[in-house]
UniProtKB/TrEMBL annotation:
This is RidA family protein. InterPro entries: RutC-like_sf, YjgF/YER057c/UK114. It comes from Rhizocola hellebori. One of its GO terms (molecular function) is deaminase activity. Gene3D superfamilies: RutC-like (3.30.1330.40).
């Protein structure tokens, strides 16, 4: 039984990249700190927004797996993109890694990140089964 239910009322715009709302049953909650496009050694991955988003999502999945959870348990994600980044390239990369598990998201454009070269950072909240 799923502990996270995605809400998409028919009177609102539907997008395969996200849900309009998320209903979460009470229970253990995982707060995932900002994940960005760095590998296990802390190096920024080569490429642009798509490559960094792919790595950030893989990092997010690793944190979920360590908590015995998966993308289906995520209630909310915040995506921070450096100003001028191609949001559609980021969404496409997300769907390739994440699969068909759209959740409620907020996408925010920022001037820069604390570490030069970072193009995206993603945090999330998940209900642990």
């Amino acid at each position: 039984m799923s502990t996270v239910t995605h809400i998409n009322p028919p009177e609102l715009h539907t997008n395969p990249a996200f849900s309009q709302g998320t209903l979460v049953e009470a229970g253990p909650t995982l707060y995932i700190g900002g994940q960005n496009g760095v590998d296990a050694d802390g190096n920024i991955v080569a490429g642009g927004i798509a490559e960094q988003t792919t790595q950030a999502m893989k990092n997010l999945l690793a944190v979920l797996a360590a908590a015995k959870a998966g993308p289906e348990h995520v209630a909310k994600m915040n995506v921070y993109l450096v100003a001028g980044a191609d949001v559609n390239a980021g969404f496409a990369a997300t769907r390739q890694v994440w699969g068909d598990q759209p959740t409620a998201i907020t996408v925010i454009s920022v001037a820069s990140f604390a570490r030069p070269g970072i193009l995206v950072e993603i945090d999330a909240i998940a209900r642990i089964p």
